[in-house]
């Protein structure tokens, strides 16, 4: 459309005024303006002594180093994500099916979810972790919020404890030694002090149960104990059911507060109920507790960030009221942190969790993933023992889940990287999902060489 002629007419008065202003500007004034443009800016308020350069995240740094490696034989055992037998990301068939169903839904939109998340997702998540017949659910003793995966659930729980947990102690949080490194950062960020309880025995490469129990017995009353529900990260070492019972007994006697981090339900053993046994036992024993639940691993929804947080109160007469009050405060914390959780991953998980046919297919997918990892554990142990690799290797099959603490030293780990292009964390943890029928012989021989040459 042609422009109006009025748009091309300049006002004589404005033109004259502009010219007069330019003419009256002195050379000194113009030099001052130029000086202000080229003069060095004031230094930042965030100098190096205030904001030092942070170290690179070790795991993501390891991934970057792997990507830069041009060797055709390189092996990635650092990634904490499932890979198929061809070392490729695997979209669970049931997730693909749910994705197709959602994509064809004519009512699909991108509106905000409620602050607490998708109701049918949080309700199904309660039943998954606590059991559909859980008395805690029936008695309305659970408050649940959808979170930004398991990390967001742990953070929400940590923030809640910092704000509202007031036992007559210093509120120390106890982590297993070792634990998922992000636990330390999350609780540090909310200014809760933490300590550790012995967990992994370097001698047996199994659980230091005696050390763990002794530390719990000596912890201050009211201390918070962070527990891995199953498939302990990074060791792959879990207590037996009898050991869990003893842990619960000591924690009741000392009035310790449990916080379960559950990232691998169904992925560890292939059995959803078996992997949730410890959590359900603690609920059965009447504990008040927190639970962080992730769907990254068991649904393969890594980037969709689907998770859930649960507060479970003890079966006191006013339990339902307690749950409601706590839920109201959790909503305020969630609102100030993320406002509303992301919808897509929760929709996929919710559809599968609430549809009996899709749920059954999901269980089969879980058995496929856990089964392949168990097969790789058996194969690796067999190959190392056939090679006569110095040391004992039964811990490879004794451990469970995605990760294995191999017992390799940092020196051996670095030798594996330099000589054989094998990438794992410096503490010797490997992701079993990174092994497959194409690279397991190569890896076993590389380990054998590294161990023999570094003795």
**Given the helix and strand composition, which structural class is it?**
alpha/beta
Helix content: 40-55%
Count, helices: 19
Low-confidence stretches: 1-24
* Shape summary: globular
What is the makeup of the main sheet? 7 strands, mixed
Q: Report how far the terminal alpha carbons are from each other.
A: 83 Å
Tell me, rounded to a whole number, the average pLDDT: 90
Overall strand count: 13
What is the C-alpha radius of gyration, as a whole number of Å?
Answer: 28 Å
Percent range for β-strand residues: 5-15%
How do the strands line up in the largest sheet?
2-10-9-8-7-3-4
Keywords: Aminotransferase, Pyridoxal phosphate, Transferase
Region (Disordered): 1-31
InterPro entries: Aminotransferase_I/II_large (IPR004839), Asp_trans (IPR000796), NHTrfase_class1_PyrdxlP-BS (IPR004838), PyrdxlP-dep_Trfase (IPR015424), PyrdxlP-dep_Trfase_major (IPR015421), PyrdxlP-dep_Trfase_small (IPR015422)
Domain Aminotransferase class I/classII large: 73-446
A few lines on this structure:
With 455 residues, the protein is α/β, with parallel strands linked by helices. Helices cover 48% and strands 12% of the residues.
């Amino acid at each position: 459309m042609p422009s109006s002629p009025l748009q091309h007419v300049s006002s004589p008065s404005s033109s004259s005024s502009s010219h007069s202003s330019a003419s009256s500007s002195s050379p000194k004034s113009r030099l001052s303006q130029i000086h202000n443009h080229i003069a060095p800016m004031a230094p930042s308020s965030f100098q190096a002594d205030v904001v030092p350069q942070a170290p690179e995240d070790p795991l993501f740094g390891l991934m970057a180093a792997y990507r830069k490696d041009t060797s055709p034989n390189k092996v990635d055992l650092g990634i904490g994500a499932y890979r198929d037998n061809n070392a490729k990301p695997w979209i669970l068939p049931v997730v693909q099916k749910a994705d197709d169903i959602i994509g064809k839904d004519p009512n699909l939109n991108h509106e905000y979810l409620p602050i607490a998340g998708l109701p049918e997702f949080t309700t199904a998540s309660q039943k998954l972790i606590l059991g559909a017949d859980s008395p805690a659910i029936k008695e309305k003793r659970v408050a649940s919020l959808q979170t930004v995966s398991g990390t967001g659930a742990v953070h929400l729980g940590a923030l809640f404890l910092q704000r509202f947990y007031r036992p007559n102690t210093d509120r120390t949080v106890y982590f297993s030694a070792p634990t998922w490194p992000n636990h330390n950062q999350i609780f540090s960020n909310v200014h809760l002090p933490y300590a550790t309880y012995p967990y992994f025995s370097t001698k047996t490469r199994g659980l230091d149960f005696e050390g763990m129990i002794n530390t719990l017995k000596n912890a201050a009353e009211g201390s918070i104990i962070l527990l891995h529900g199953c498939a302990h990260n990074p060791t792959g070492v879990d207590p037996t059911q009898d050991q869990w019972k003893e842990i619960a007994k000591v924690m009741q006697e000392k009035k310790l507060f449990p916080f379960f981090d559950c990232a691998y339900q169904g992925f560890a053993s292939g059995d959803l109920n078996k992997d949730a046994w410890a959590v359900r036992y603690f609920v059965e024993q009447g504990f008040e507790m927190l639970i962080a639940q992730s769907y990254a691993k068991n649904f393969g929804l890594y980037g969709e960030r689907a998770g859930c947080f649960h507060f479970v109160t003890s079966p006191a007469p006013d339990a339902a009221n307690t749950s409601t009050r706590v839920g109201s405060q959790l909503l305020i914390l969630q609102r100030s942190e993320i406002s509303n959780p992301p919808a897509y991953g929760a929709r996929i998980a919710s559809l599968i969790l609430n549809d009996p046919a899709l749920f059954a297919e999901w269980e089969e997918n879980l058995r496929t993933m856990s089964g392949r990892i168990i097969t790789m554990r058996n194969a690796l142990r067999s190959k190392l023992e056939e090679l006569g690799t110095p040391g004992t290797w039964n811990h490879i099959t004794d451990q469970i889940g995605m990760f294995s603490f191999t017992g390799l030293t940092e020196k051996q780990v670095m030798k594996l990287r330099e000589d054989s292009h094998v990438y794992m964390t410096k503490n010797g943890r490997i992701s079993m999902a990174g092994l497959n029928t194409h690279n397991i012989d190569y890896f076993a021989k590389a380990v054998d060489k590294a161990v023999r040459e570094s003795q």
